[in-house]
Amino acid sequence: MTLKIWIFPVIVATSVATVLASPCSMQNRTSNLLNCITGIKTRFMDNDAFWFGSQYATRCPLKGASYDPKCTNLRPDTADSFGTRFFQSSAIDSLDRYLSVRFESIGRNYTGCGTTFTWDGKERVNIDVDPLSDDVETPWFVRNTPNITWSSNATDYYTLIVYDAGYMICHGLYVNVRGNDLSSGQVVKEYHGPKRSFILQNPYIFLLFKHSQPVNVTAELKNVILNPNWS
Ligand SMILES: *[C@@H]1O[C@H](CO)[C@@H](O)[C@H](O)[C@H]1NC(C)=O
Ligand SMILES: *[C@@H]1O[C@H](CO)[C@@H](O)[C@H](O)[C@H]1NC(C)=O
Ligand SMILES: *[C@@H]1O[C@H](CO)[C@@H](O)[C@H](O)[C@H]1NC(C)=O
Ligand SMILES: *[C@@H]1O[C@H](CO)[C@@H](O)[C@H](O)[C@H]1NC(C)=O
Ligand SMILES: *[C@@H]1O[C@H](CO)[C@@H](O)[C@H](O)[C@H]1NC(C)=O
């Protein structure tokens, strides 16, 4: 079975940042895709990009022993990049195309934990996830299944995994997707957005694997994925 991966972080936390110029903006990835993909590969191996990387040792000198939720880390001693957290470092070499992830949301104000959170009157929000930007999205705006597309042939098989890369929890698993029609796949776990909010800026990763044959989802795998302790 050949595996190919496409990887995209969306960072989820407390504030919506402004959009910065990026090699992976819609305009730039259309005119120079290679530049965007090179940027993703570099970021994938950057162990200073997220909280569980090299910043972790200074942020959490007690390595989680303080019971601070910001310090909960299943790999406290590794100063991870995405590459070391999930794969052998060479896995990213097979990245060869762009995975477009777009969230569409209606804004609103809501009350939680005794506070009213307002979104500055923002009503409709479209988020074209840019894997190279430091934009931070709130859980509210990424709660619905995004529109996910990629270039493919109709007879290809793909598996899409959405994963909370910080706390290492599966947020969606679709297997045996034909072409890029997500609805054609077997839904092992439906996408759900972040539940814990306002702890820290935490990246979510979208991984797409191409495979030459359909894969079988075993009962054992289902049990792990659907375990409520890991949802
Ligand atoms: C595209 O990239 C160029 C330089 O690489 C940058 O100056 C420009 O702002 C980018 N455009 C967008 C829309 O991000
Ligand atoms: C949210 O609150 C802001 C500020 O009070 C207000 O301008 C906006 O209209 C509110 N939006 C909604 C959807 O209620
Ligand atoms: C998702 O995006 C594709 C490509 O831009 C578009 O053709 C399709 O209509 C979108 N689907 C939804 C449900 O918005
Ligand atoms: C679709 O298949 C053709 C023929 O095998 C191949 O050349 C092309 O790269 C494929 N396209 C994608 C997007 O995988
Ligand atoms: C998947 O399961 C079916 C039915 O048990 C079996 O025929 C097939 O060979 C299996 N495929 C793989 C890739 O294991």
Automatic annotation (TrEMBL):
Annotated keywords: Signal
Gene3D superfamilies attached to this UniProt entry: PEBP-like
Signal peptide per UniProt: 1-21
Record keyword Signal present: yes
InterPro entries tied to this protein: PEBP-like_sf
Keyword check for Signal: yes
SUPFAM superfamilies tied to this protein: PEBP-like
Record's protein name: Secreted protein
Lineage: Eukaryota, Metazoa, Spiralia, Lophotrochozoa, Mollusca
